[in-house]
């Protein structure tokens, strides 16, 4: 605010001097010249710095114009141009700061009390209070307003075992919460961290904007030079210098990016940099992981079958022994099924996880395999006896997990994974953005195809190991595709990093937050389409400002050359057109 105050004092000073000299009260040149030089000091200083750093800014062409006016004894003109520049800068700062405050103001919400807390501590949150930590509810029931973080407009009901997020507001009940992360490690803390880093780094389009702004200064200088050489008309030359603005490009571009990222954050999408906003707008292909991304990670065992006469309780017990430490979604379902039958997992001697295939373990000198058909084929174990059972599962779009020894197959379980309720709508939104949608999965191709047909995706590819997913993306990129990958962030980390834009689901996983370029904080798949819409709107605004500025500057210089523009009219066009472009960017802060 303090630099705004000095701006205001300068503006007032210049305005008083202008009024006095217009009224003829101060006929001497000394006052308007002194007022111009003193009030215009910040502009002259920036122009001087620009020359030293060999970096073109509009302050340079404006300063040349003002000095030329003073030299030609057009004191009023010099003062008016200075006044316009000062007013324009002040308005521009006010608009940009207002936008920035809307985002960094969030940081003030990060509860201070959290500093003394540790993960594992219990906090009591009263009605109306901000929840200070990310955590799990131990006791109590309440509705919580999560709009600031996930963009959900309706309060969300919370009870024992619900997850709560720092920075959200507890509405009506008392909640006892056990902290899982605090301060900067909370989702809210990370969002703020991302916002800060976005403001300190430049995306490619911002660099383009800076280059364009510099070219426009050369353009103005060149236009003025030609005008002087051809017409020898000082007024026309000053007008040519003054009419060309570039702030709509130079300041409007970062403002639009910030606004887009800020709006996405309020919708529950954290975007880690302007570059991803650009990539989102250009994307033509979306790859969706199946398990955990399109499905809820809440698989249910629908059938346990034995193929060699082995008792089905014994089968479940072996399965739970193998799966007890796995965090694969299918493992969770198997553990749940065993628990429902009061079956306890047993002890094992050796254990190996086989990514994308399953696992093996040994117990009392017998080796067991648990996993997909690919794993059994690899170990040359005949699964012929299970073929009809496998086929009927796949026709239903169900997943299967087989269990066997190294000699023969013992049995298998069928599982259904519940589809996210919004998956279908999310996919149709993506189609509306003209994207090609491909389902990628480690699950069997037949059941992936069934899911793909249900969801109306363009292609469905199964039997992919995590490395195959990576290769698939590399292939698309080599073919010139702009690829978005949406995954659940744990086994998809390499694919998320390889895609132009990697989007992770989920609030909890650390790995997701690190390896992805974007995070959907509320797991709502529809927000991918929302983010793409915001990104496209942002890029349209930026392009509009680019072309608008080029056209206004070019037409202005031509009019000045032809002698149709007074310096005052030129200054007016410069300032008003720039303000329009900056307001065009600021418009993005508003919700649709
Ligand atoms: N712990 C496990 N127990 C049994 N089978 C497993 C296990 N882990 C992996 N598998 C088998 O390997 C396949 C591929 O696993 P992976 O984790 O690569 O993909 P996914 O998460 O199942 O599917 P998606 O690629 O759609 O997320 C699974 O479909 C399953 O058949
Ligand atoms: Zn300007």
UniProtKB/TrEMBL annotation:
It holds the Pfam family E1-E2_ATPase. Its EC number is 7.2.2.12. One of its GO terms (molecular function) is ATP binding. It catalyses: Zn(2+)(in) + ATP + H2O = Zn(2+)(out) + ADP + phosphate + H(+). It comes from the Bacteria. Residues 114-196 form the P-type ATPase A domain. InterPro entries: ATPase_P-typ_cyto_dom_N (IPR023299), ATPase_P-typ_P_site (IPR018303), ATPase_P-typ_TM_dom_sf (IPR023298), ATPase_P-typ_transduc_dom_A_sf (IPR008250), ATPase_P-type_domA (IPR059000), Cation_Transport_ATPase_IB (IPR051014), HAD-like_sf (IPR036412), HAD_sf (IPR023214). The chain crosses the membrane at residues 12-44, 64-91, 212-230, 236-258, 544-565, 571-589. GO terms for cellular component: plasma membrane. Keywords: ATP-binding, Cell membrane, Membrane, Metal-binding, Nucleotide-binding, Translocase, Transmembrane, Transmembrane helix. It is found in: Cell membrane; Membrane. Belongs to the cation transport ATPase (P-type) (TC 3.A.3) family. Type IB subfamily. This is P-type Zn(2+) transporter. It comes from Chitinophaga silvisoli.
């Amino acid at each position: 605010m303090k630099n705004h105050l000095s701006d205001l004092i300068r503006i007032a000073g210049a305005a008083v001097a202008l009024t006095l000299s217009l009224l003829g009260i101060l006929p001497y040149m000394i006052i308007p010249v002194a007022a111009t030089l003193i009030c215009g000091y910040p502009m002259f200083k920036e122009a001087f710095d620009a020359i030293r750093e060999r970096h073109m800014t509009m302050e340079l062409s404006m300063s040349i114009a003002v000095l030329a006016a003073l030299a030609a004894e057009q004191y009023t003109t010099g003062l008016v141009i200075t006044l316009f520049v000062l007013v324009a800068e002040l308005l521009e700062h006010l608009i940009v700061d207002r936008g920035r405050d809307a985002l960094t103001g969030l940081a003030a919400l990060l509860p201070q009390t959290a500093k003394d807390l540790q993960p594992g501590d219990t906090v009591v949150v009263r009605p109306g209070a901000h929840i200070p930590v990310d955590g799990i509810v131990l006791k109590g029931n309440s509705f919580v307003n999560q709009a600031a973080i996930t963009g959900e407009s309706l309060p969300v009901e919370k009870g024992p075992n619900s997850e709560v997020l720092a920075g959200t507001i507890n509405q009506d009940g008392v909640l006892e919460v056990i902290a899982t992360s605090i301060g900067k490690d909370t989702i809210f803390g990370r969002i703020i961290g991302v916002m800060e880093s976005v403001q300190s780094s430049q995306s490619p389009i911002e660099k383009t904007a800076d280059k364009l702004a510099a070219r426009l200064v050369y353009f103005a200088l060149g236009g003025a030079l030609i005008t002087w050489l051809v017409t020898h008309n000082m007024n026309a030359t000053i007008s040519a210098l003054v009419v060309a603005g570039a702030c709509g490009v130079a300041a409007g571009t970062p403002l639009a990016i910030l606004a887009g990222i800020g709006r996405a954050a309020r919708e529950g999408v954290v975007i880690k940099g302007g570059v991803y906003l650009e990539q989102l707008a250009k994307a033509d292909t979306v790859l969706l992981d199946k398990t955990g991304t399109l499905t809820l990670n809440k698989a249910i065992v629908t059938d346990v079958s034995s193929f060699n006469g082995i008792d089905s309780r014994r089968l479940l017990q072996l399965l739970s022994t193998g799966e007890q430490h796995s965090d694969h979604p299918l493992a969770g379902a198997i553990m749940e099924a065993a628990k429902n039958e009061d079956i306890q997992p047993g002890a094992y001697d050796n254990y190996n996880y086989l990514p994308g295939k399953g696992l093996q373990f040994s117990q009392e000198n017998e080796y067991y395999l648990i996993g997909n058909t690919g794993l059994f084929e690899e170990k040359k174990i005949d699964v012929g006896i299970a073929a009809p059972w496998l086929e009927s599962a796949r026709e239903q779009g169900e997943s299967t997990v087989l269990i066997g020894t190294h000699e023969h197959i013992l049995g298998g379980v069928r599982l259904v994974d519940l589809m996210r309720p919004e998956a279908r709508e999310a996919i149709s939104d993506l189609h509306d953005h003209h994207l090609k949608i491909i389902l990628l999965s480690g699950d069997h191709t037949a059941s992936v195809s069934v899911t793909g047909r249900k969801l109306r995706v363009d292609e469905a590819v199964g039997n992919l190991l995590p490395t195959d997913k990576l290769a698939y993306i590399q292939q698309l990129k080599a073919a010139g595709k702009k690829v978005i990958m949406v995954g659940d962030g744990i086994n998809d980390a390499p694919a998320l990093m390889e895609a132009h834009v990697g989007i992770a689901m989920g609030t909890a996983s650390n790995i997701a937050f690190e390896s992805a370029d974007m995070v959907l904080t509320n797991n709502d798949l529809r927000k991918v389409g929302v983010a793409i819409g915001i990104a496209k709107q942002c890029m349209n605004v930026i392009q509009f400002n680019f072309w608008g500025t080029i056209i206004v500057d070019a037409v202005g210089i031509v009019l000045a050359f032809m002698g149709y523009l007074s310096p005052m009219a030129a200054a007016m066009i410069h300032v008003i057109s720039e303000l329009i472009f900056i307001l065009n960017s600021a418009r993005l802060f508003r919700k649709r």
